[in-house]
Every structure is written in C-alpha cells, then in structure tokens.
Specification:
The protein is α/β, with parallel strands linked by helices and 410 residues long. 36% of the residues lie in helices and 22% in strands. It has helices at residues 87-94, 99-104, 108-118, 121-137, 153-169, 192-209, 227-239, 256-262, 276-284, 293-298, 306-312, 332-343, 347-354, 356-360, 390-393, and strands at 3-13, 32-41, 44-50, 61-63, 68-71, 73-75, 140-146, 173-181, 215-220, 243-248, 267-270, 288-291, 315-318, 379-382, 400-405, 408-409. Strands 1, 2, 3, 4, 5, 14, 15 and 16 form an 8-stranded mixed β-sheet that branches. Strands 6-7-8-9-10-11-12-13 form an 8-stranded parallel β-sheet. Helix 7 (227-239) links the parallel strand 9 (215-220) and strand 10 (243-248). The protein binds N-(iminomethyl)-L-glutamic acid (NIG) and fe (iii) ion. Residues 77, 79, 247, 321, 323 line the site of fe (iii) ion. Residues 79, 108-109, 112, 219, 247, 250, 295, 321, 323-326 line the site of N-(iminomethyl)-L-glutamic acid.
Length: 410
C-alpha cells in the first residue's frame, strides 16, 4: 500500500461526509479545516485532521503550507465529445445573429452533427481525450458527457461508444447521458413523431442492451422539443432505468420545469429564463437546479437567477456545459468566478455547487465531491493564495498548483 502524508495545509475545503444535495441557506456552509493534515492510502483519503492532532513522523511527509486543498470539481453537464469547432458562428453572433437564428440557418447543433458524422472514430476519440486531459489539469475530477451530435442511430451509438471508451481508459470518473433528443434532424423537421419513434424504438433498446448510458436528456425549447415530447421521451428512457437530466428554460419558459419535476428528473439544467412560479417550484424540487453560467455568458444572455433560486431553497449546482456552440470552455474555475462575480454567489456557495452538488447530480457523492475518509483522492492543490475567496476573485488566473486523480498527481 502506498501512503502519502500532507501536513500544514492552510485550508482543507469541504470536509463533509457524503450527504445529499446541499440547498438553500446551507449552501453557504462549507465545512473546512484550517492548518490541516491529510493522509492518502493508494487512491483513497484515509484520514484528515488538525495539525495539533498530527502524530506521524516528520519524514516522508509533504509540507503543504500556503496551500489550499479542495475536492476536484464535479462537472455534471458537458457535451465534451464533439467534432471540430464553430468559431464561424461565434463571428455570426458577434455580428448580431441570435442562437435561434443560427440554428434556423442549419448551423448550431445540426452543424456539429454533420461534422461528427463525417469524423473518424480515432479523430473524435483523440480530440475528446485531449479535452478531458485539459479539464482534468484545470481541476475537474468527475464529469458527465452527453451524446446528441449524432442524431441518427449510428451517430448516437458512435458517440455513446466513444464515451464508454473514455470511461474505460480515463482515470476521471465519467457518467454518460443519451441526448438523441438534442434537435430534430432536417429530414424529421416536419415529422417530429417519426424521430421520437426512432429514439424510442430503435435507439433506446440498443443503448440499454450495450449499457451505453446512465441518463437520458432532452433539449426542451421552442423550435426543439416541447414539454410533452420531453415527457414521452423521458418516460421511455426511465423504462430502461435511465433517469432524466434535462435541458430546460434556456431561452424560453415552455413548461419544461413542471414536466421535468413530474418526470422526477435527477437534474434540471440551464434555467436562464425562469418565472417566479418556476423558481418556487425549483425551491421544492428535490433534484439539482444546474446552472451553466458560461453558456449564458458566451451567448450574451442574462445569467441565471442564482440568488432567487438559493433563497427559494433550490439545490443549486454549477457545471460547464462544455460544447462547441454555447460554451467552448470546460474551465470550472471560470464557472465559479463567473457565478460569484455575475450571479452573486458567495465563494462557499459556488464551491459547494461545483463539488458536492455536482457529485449528487451524477449520483457519485459517496466517493466524490468532498474530502472525507473513504472517498477517492481526487483533489486540487492551490498555489499559495491568501484566502479561499481569492480563488474566484482572481478570475482568469491559474491558481492550481497540482491536481490529484485517484491518489496520483497528473
Ligand atoms: O447546452 N442547448 C442545447 N445544447 C447545448 C448547445 C449545443 C450546441 O450549440 O452545440 C447547450 O447549450
Ligand atoms: Fe448542454
């Protein structure tokens, strides 16, 4: 067994045992130990404590003074497998076209689907692998990845098999979500039922048979899937054991919140556009209210009403939405800064939302999302910083010294 001992850590952050979602006022409570030690055995956190109780020999220990140690980020909403990039649309947006106008021009998701179906598996895998490696160096230790750029049986299976291969080869914890209902392929634009039938009768049985997904997702939005269509697809996924994690209320409020709650979704994601009534519903809803502020930032939309959601009691969770169209960045440090700067979350709330709540939104909170004995040693070691608040405050600067995944520095 290999043992690693770290002493004199200035702050060990989020030292809670596994819990469910942290919500409402409790989000501001971030249990931490000042002047701490940490012992890792193989890939597991064995012991944590205060230096005054430290009883180990001085040799073989790493003195980590001036370092803040945090649980690695749990990014519970990404589209990290994609082909190519879409900076031409970025320019269209700068020139004034809206997300919906770009989608209507055959751009957007359909553009990525075309590229994905034309790209070889090796090329796709290598690009996704590179992105995974980049986000892990930025502190992400667990991540959800969606399909949704295939939009044909072959294309969706290609994506999901790719995610399965990433799961097998990567040391990061990965969860996989089937998002065949990301948009309607052009040939089904006037035949929604035809594509929904394909999702239900052709895609889902194979995905279940090959164990290719953990969750099911639907993009519920005007011009995409209605709340009723989402309900049909979500219920079909549930029959195979895939809990819904859903895109709702990004651009419009069209009943996705009520429908998602009725589906007993694990998470409702995006939430840029919310009515007061929907905020109240999310306050009582037991799953995650997952905010993706970098998507709103990139699309130049008002950011999500994090304060109202927290005040209502919601289980606010933060994720990157890493994708080529609305958030070409998987940097969770930026997501946290943005949440503090523009959504007025306090650093403690943002860190809970990006760690333990992210873990709960992927149902991996037993092993990830906080620093406690028995949990996986997936950790972020900061550069010398004066305080925890300095991390989101000093936005855009890389304040991570090292990242540990499964007990090894990467
Ligand atoms: O979460 N809104 C739907 N899906 C993605 C964007 C996908 C794309 O534009 O390629 C999102 O923002
Ligand atoms: Fe998304």
């Amino acid at each position: 067994m290999s043992t690693q001992i770290f002493s004199n850590i200035s702050l060990l952050v989020n030292t809670r045992d596994s819990t469910g979602f942290i919500r409402g006022d409790d989000l501001a409570i971030l249990p931490s130990i000042e002047n701490a030690y940490l012992i890792i055995e193989d890939d597991i956190i064995a012991e944590i404590g205060k230096m005054k109780d430290f009883r180990f020999s001085k040799k073989n220990q790493v003195v980590a003074d001036n370092t803040i140690v945090l649980p690695s980020w749990c990014d519970s909403h990404t589209h990290l497998v994609f082909a190519g990039s879409r900076e031409e649309e970025f320019i269209d947006k700068i020139k004034g076209l809206s997300y919906a106008e770009i989608a209507a021009k055959g751009g957007g998701i359909l553009n990525s689907a075309k590229k994905l179906n034309e790209t070889s598996e090796d090329e796709l895998f290598n690009a996704a692998w590179k992105r995974l490696s980049e986000v892990s160096k930025l502190g992400t230790g667990a991540i959800e990845i969606k399909s949704g750029y295939g939009l044909t049986l072959e294309g969706e299976l290609k994506m999901l098999r790719m995610i399965k291969k990433l799961k097998e080869k990567s040391s990061l914890k990965i969860k996989s979500t089937f998002l065949g209902a990301h948009t309607f392929p052009i040939e089904y634009k006037e035949n929604h039922q035809g594509y929904i039938d394909m999702i239900i009768n052709e895609m889902l049985p194979v995905i279940s048979e090959e164990k290719l997904a953990d969750y099911i997702d639907v993009f519920c939005e005007e011009g995409f899937f209605s709340a009723e269509e989402m309900t049909t697809i979500g219920n079909s996924g549930k029959k195979y054991g895939f809990k819904p994690k859903l895109h709702v209320n990004q651009l419009n409020s069209i009943g996705g919140i009520e429908a998602g709650i009725a589906l007993d979704a694990l998470s409702l994601d995006h939430l840029e556009t919310l009515t007061q009534r929907e905020i109240e519903l999310l306050g009582k809803y037991k799953g995650a209210s997952t905010l993706l502020p970098s998507a709103a930032f990139f699309l130049r939309m008002p950011l999500q009403p994090a304060r109202s959601l927290i005040n209502a009691g919601a289980a606010v969770t933060l994720a990157s939405d890493y994708n080529p169209g609305s958030s070409p960045s998987g940097n969770m440090n930026f997501v946290i800064s943005l949440s503090c700067i523009q959504m007025k979350m306090i650093p403690e709330e943002a860190i809970n939302a990006a760690t333990i709540n992210g873990a709960c939104a992927m149902e991996i909170e037993k092993d990830y999302g906080s620093i406690a004995p028995g949990k996986k040693a997936n950790l972020i070691f900061s550069k010398p910083v004066p305080s925890l608040s300095y991390l989101p405050y000093s936005f855009g600067n890389n304040l991570i010294d090292k990242v540990m995944i499964n007990g090894s520095f990467i």
